[in-house]
Each structure stands twice: as structure tokens, then as C-alpha cells.
Design brief:
Order of helices and strands of chain B: HEEEEHHHHHHHEEHEEHEHHEEEEEHHHH
Number of helices of chain B: 16
Number of domains of chain A: 1
Order of helices and strands of chain A: EEEEHEHEHEHEHH
Number of helices of chain A: 6
CATH architecture of the largest domain in chain B: 2-Layer Sandwich
Oligomer: heterodimer
Structural class of chain A: alpha/beta
Number of strands of chain A: 8
Radius of gyration of chain B: 23 Å
Helix content of chain B: 25-40%
CATH topology of the largest domain in chain B: Sulfite Reductase Hemoprotein, domain 1
CATH architecture of chain A: Alpha-Beta Barrel
CATH class of chain A: Alpha Beta
Largest interface: A-B, 29 and 29 residues
Distance between the termini of chain B: 61 Å
Structural class of chain B: alpha+beta
Strand content of chain A: 15-25%
Distance between the termini of chain A: 63 Å
Shape of chain A: globular
CATH superfamily of the largest domain in chain B: Sulfite Reductase Hemoprotein, domain 1
Radius of gyration of chain A: 18 Å
CATH topology of chain A: TIM Barrel
Chain lengths: ~170, ~425
């Protein structure tokens, strides 16, 4: 069963499934695209790569992404967690992954992801958003453009307001 | 400050910090904004070579765990304001605790890591930001600062010859005007102008409150005499920041008619108080009634002037909205088995000499607290080396012991008897 998610501004069927944190011998379905926990990835890297078409990693929001980046930087997908909508640690993780570490794969937000988070997620570099089941996907998609101007730069293409003002012709 | 406000407004990365997060700014040599009681304090400083920059403190906060911000960087160049602020916020967002709401504050990081480790982490992040594209975006150019500065133009001051006035004759004629001029009016950097404090601490007034009628009158007075601007102060009073000397007399008459000219700024009756049990759902004890009881014990101006500058602050619960932790005499209301009791701290201060007060001893009952505060102040009057030594200076010289002995003197007699 796949769910619909918001990816690169479109509502699509999700190709990825989250593998619960169990050992290899408990019967993984093979093939397909799987997201595994960082712990399992560390333990079973080779087995997972052999068994699945693609493997993404779910990184806890307590992880120091600069420290673990060598282990996960080559993944096609990194999922970051929002245990509650008000826990914004993954926002800093996302900005660092995108801007400092240069991660170019799919960056996914999972957990207590509500419509009100979506605008910030987009600005911090998430291109894949799995809203909480009770959230309207269409409302989430629209929320990506909730504000059209921004004071500061982030991991999107907004220019900081002070830089835009420099470009404005001086008024005489 | 305006630049930083714009930077943090709707900041995507820092929109979901764990809890409230406060910056305190001061651009003056005297910190009147209790900046170091905030999560981050920023002091505008000028280095010996003339360069302007920011001195950053981190980790302040009152409430259950009162702490003052600790210096993290003595001089961040003006151009690096946003870079350094970003380094602080990101370090806190990544490594601050979220497991317990009471520990989700930057002061907890400071306490658990210690200043050295925290400073090193911020400096490391600051260095990484400076070396990155992000750092280029966050770098402020002189033109950015100038553009914002231009929005804060000075009012259209009149020349000193027009604005100035000789206030001595009226002061000599009218003792009340003289007292107000001395206590509530301060010098101004522009010749011919003064800064006027509006006291919201009249007898029986709830500290810091004013009525709709008073507020209407203040709106008219600030339109007429201070370029339409009225500011609130950390001490629950108001300020008319730009008053011409020639307007002081009509302004004073206007304030007098509204009971807004009590000449007690910075004195023993200028008590800071939270709403307490009268209005607040969090409070454990009353604050306003205690403020009034203390006020009545020092109601005469002579008594207040003899005591001199002193800061009494009252909070009705340990959340500390009345900033009791940084009062020279701090009073904290607590609930003991359904009764209101009050813990007293001494030696706190919110300014340049910021300090967290120390608890003096056992709490006092509701009917003991005002007389207890009076004993502390009488003790000061006897102990001070001369009239110029303020309460806080006297406390710092002598320590807790003589005040403690005086506060609990009746008790010792009772025990001895």
C-alpha cells in the first residue's frame, strides 16, 4: 500500500516504504525502495544494498548531521523526523545537509508534519514531505507558497531582503 | 536591533525553537533594559580604535532558574551581527534539550556545557558560516546598516535658544515642581531638552497601571510636548524622551492633574510588581497588596529621599515576571498550605552591575512582609557609611549577615526568651 505525498511540489504516489527496525532474518520483502533507520543502515549496509533497489536512511533529529554525513551522504534519500510539529531540530539538519554538506538527493520530512510546517520545510530544503494522515495534501501543496517574500536566505531561492535592497536604485 | 529583528522574522530554520527566545539589546553605556536576563544580550560597543561592534552574552533567563547571560564574544564586528546571531541560534537549535520543557532553554545548555564549551561551539559554527556562501549572504555591508539607520531619524529639535528655559524660579517657588524636576527629569544630549519620566507609582495605584483617562491625557501630552512618542520602561513607568525645557512647566501641570507626576522615580516606592494573585492564573500569592503595604510605610517624600535609590521587585510566583531575582530587595510569593508567604532575596541587580539576588532566610507571612522590608531598610540607614552609599552598595560591602540579623530580630528574641 502506498500513500500519496508531496514531492517536488506535486502530489504523487510514494515509491518508498519505511522498513521497521528489524533484523534481516525477519523476512524483508526484497526489491523496491526502502527507508531504513540509521542504526539498521550502519549494521546491515551491504545486505540492505543487495536486497533492495534503493535504500534511504531515516536520521534521528538528535543526530549531528555533520558528523554522520560520510555515512549517509551518498544515499538517494534522507528522511528527517518531526516527533512533534513544534520540534524544529530537523530544520537546522536540513539546512546543513543542503547548504553546508551539499546533499542533492531527496530530503524528506516525516512525523508530525502539519500544513503549518510546510512553508518552513520548503524553505529549509525539504523537497519531499509526508504530511500527517489527517492533513489535506492540497492545502499542504498550497502552503509551499504561503509567503512570497522573505527577509532572509535559506535553502531555497529567496534572496535576503538586505541584498535585494542593495540592488534597488537609490532614490534621489 | 532592527536588522536583527528583520533577520529573525519568520526565519524558517529557527521558527520552531523549543520555547520563547528573547534578545535584549542596549546601545547605551548604562544598561536600562536588563539585557542579561534574556537568552541573548547584545551590547553595542565602540573599540579603542573607533570600530563599532557587538558584545554578546548568552544564557540569561529568570524564572525557576535565574541566570545572567555570560559573555560569549566581547567584540563581534558590526558586519557580522547576523552571522554571529545565526551561529548562536543554530547551535542552540541543534544541541539544546527538548526532552523537558523546563530544560529547553539556552541557559540550560550554558549550565550543562559550561561557558568554555558553549563558546567554542558557537565560535566553530561562526567560523563555518563565515567561510561559506551562507556567510556571504549574512554579511552586512555599511550601506545596509546606513539604510536602516536612516529610518531612525532624530526629531526636529528646536534650537537651544528657543527650547531652553530657566527652571530655577519656578522650582524655588513650588517645592512639588522642584521635587519632580529633581527625581523625574533627566538630562538630554540635546541642549535645551530633557528626558521626562512619567511615574505610574502613585499611592494606591497598581504599579505600572494607568486608567483610560490617564492614557488619553498622556496621548495628548506626548503629542503636545514630545513629538508624539511615549515609551514604556523596564521599571513599569513611562518616558517622554524629548521634552523642551520651556515645555516642562505645562507638561508637569498636565501630569500632576492626572496623578502621573509622583516624584519617586528610582526610589523605595517605585516598586516593580507583577499582577499576582489578583489578576494572574499562575500566581501563588498576591503582589499588588504587598506593594501597597510597603509603599505606605515610606509614603513621605522625606523618608524616600533619605533612603535614596533602591529597587524593590515583587513576583507572585517563581516564574518571576516581577523580576524579583534582580531586585535589590526581591520578594517572591509562595503558597504554603493555602497561605501566602514571601521569600526575600537581597543583592540582585538588572543593570551593568547585574547580579542574581540571594535568599536571606525563611519566608515571611503576609502580615509580616511589609514590616520585614521596613526593618531591612532601617538596617541600611543605620549601616551605611554615609548618605552617598546606596542600599545596594551597602549590601555589597557588608554582605547578608547584618541584614539577616535585623530581619529576623524578633524571632531571635522569641527563641532567646
Amino acid at each position: 500500500m502506498s500513500a500519496r505525498i508531496l514531492r517536488r511540489r506535486e502530489l504523487i504516489e510514494d515509491e518508498w516504504t519505511l522498513l521497521e527496525d528489524t533484523r534481516a532474518d525477519s523476512g524483508w520483502a526484497t526489491g523496491g525502495k526502502r527507508i531504513v533507520t540509521l542504526a539498521l543502515w550502519r549494521e546491515e549496509r551491504e545486505a540492505l544494498l543487495g536486497a533492495h533497489a534503493a535504500v534511504g536512511v531515516l536520521v534521528p533529529n538528535t543526530a549531528d548531521v555533520e558528523a554522520i554525513y560520510p555515512e549517509v551522504g551518498d544515499r538517494p534519500l534522507i528522511a528527517l523526523q518531526f516527533p512533534t510539529f513544534s520540534d524544529g531540530r530537523a530544520l537546522s539538519q536540513a539546512v546543513l545537509l543542503r547548504r553546508r554538506l551539499g546533499f542533492e538527493g531527496e530530503l524528506r520530512a516525516v512525523g508530525d508534519v502539519t500544513r503549518d510546517l510546510v512553508f518552513w520545510l520548503g524553505r529549509c530544503g525539504f523537497d519531499s514531505i509526508v504530511p500527517r494522515p489527517d492533513q489535506s495534501l492540497e492545502a499542504c501543496r498550497q502552503a509551499l507558497d504561503e509567503l512570497t517574500v522573505a527577509y532572509q536566505a535559506a535553502a531555497d531561492d529567496h534572496t535576503p531582503v538586505w541584498v535585494r535592497r542593495r540592488q534597488r536604485a537609490p532614490v534621489h | 536591533m532592527q536588522l536583527l529583528r528583520q533577520y529573525v522574522a519568520l526565519h524558517p530554520e529557527f521558527y520552531w525553537l523549543p520555547r520563547k527566545f528573547k534578545f535584549g539589546f542596549t546601545g547605551a553605556a548604562v544598561d536600562r533594559a536588563a539585557t542579561r536576563t534574556n537568552d541573548v544580550a547584545v551590547h553595542l560597543v565602540r573599540r579603542a580604535d573607533g570600530a563599532i561592534g557587538y558584545r554578546f552574552f548568552v544564557g540569561g533567563g529568570l524564572g525557576r532558574l535565574p541566570m545572567l547571560g555570560v559573555e560569549m564574544n566581547p567584540f563581534v564586528p558590526e558586519s557580522d551581527l547576523l552571522r554571529y546571531a545565526c551561529a548562536i541560534l543554530r547551535t542552540f537549535n541543534r544541541f539544546g534539550r527538548r526532552d523537558n520543557i523546563h530544560k529547553a532553554r539556552i541557559k540550560i545548555v550554558l549550565r550543562e556545557w559550561g561557558p568554555e564549551r558553549f563558546r567554542a561551539a558557537i565560535e566553530e559554527e561562526f567560523a563555518k558560516i563565515k567561510a561559506s556562501v551562507e556567510g556571504e549572504e549574512l554579511l552586512l555591508l555599511p550601506e545596509d546598516i546606513e539604510r536602516v539607520r536612516a529610518h531612525f531619524s532624530t526629531p526636529a529639535y528646536r534650537p537651544a535658544a528657543q527650547a531652553g528655559a530657566d527652571l530655577e524660579p519656578l522650582a524655588a517657588r513650588d517645592a512639588r515642581f522642584a521635587a519632580w524636576l529633581k527625581r523625574n527629569v533627566r538630562p538630554h544630549k540635546m541642549p535645551g531638552y530633557r528626558v521626562v519620566f512619567v511615574s505610574l507609582k502613585a499611592p494606591d495605584q497598581v504599579p505600572g497601571d494607568c486608567s483610560a483617562e490617564q492614557f488619553e491625557a498622556l496621548a495628548d501630552l506626548c503629542d503636545a510636548y514630545s513629538f508624539g512618542e511615549l515609551r514604556s520602561t523596564y521599571d513599569q513607568n513611562l518616558v517622554l524622551a524629548d521634552v523642551a525645557e520651556c515645555d516642562l512647566e505645562p507638561l508637569w501641570r498636565g501630569l500632576e492633574s492626572q496623578a502621573l507626576a509622583t516624584p519617586n522615580i528610582g526610589l523605595v516606592t517605585d516598586i516593580v510588581s507583577c499582577p499576582g494573585l489578583d489578576f494572574c492564573g499562575l500566581a501563588n500569592a498576591g503582589s499588588i497588596g504587598v506593594a501597597h503595604d510597603i509603599y505606605r510605610r515610606f509614603d513621605t517624600l522625606d523618608a524616600q529621599y533619605e533612603i535614596g535609590p533602591i529597587r524593590i521587585t515583587i513576583s507572585g510566583c517563581m516564574n518571576g515576571c516581577g523580576h524579583h531575582s534582580v531586585g535589590h530587595i526581591g520578594i517572591l510569593g509562595v503558597d504554603k498550605h493555602g497561605e501566602e508567604w514571601y521569600q526575600v532575596t537581597l543583592g540582585g541587580s538588572p543593570g551593568n552591575d547585574a547580579a542574581i539576588g540571594e535568599r536571606i532566610g525563611r519566608a515571611l507571612a503576609r502580615d509580616e512582609i511589609a514590616s520585614g522590608i521596613e526593618r531591612l531598610i532601617r538596617a541600611y540607614l543605620e549601616l551605611r557609611c554615609d548618605e552617598d552609599e546606596t542600599f545596594i552598595e551597602c549590601y555589597r560591602r557588608l554582605g547578608m549577615a547584618p541584614f539577616k540579623a535585623r530581619l529576623y530580630e524578633n524571632e531571635e528574641e522569641a527563641v532567646a526568651a
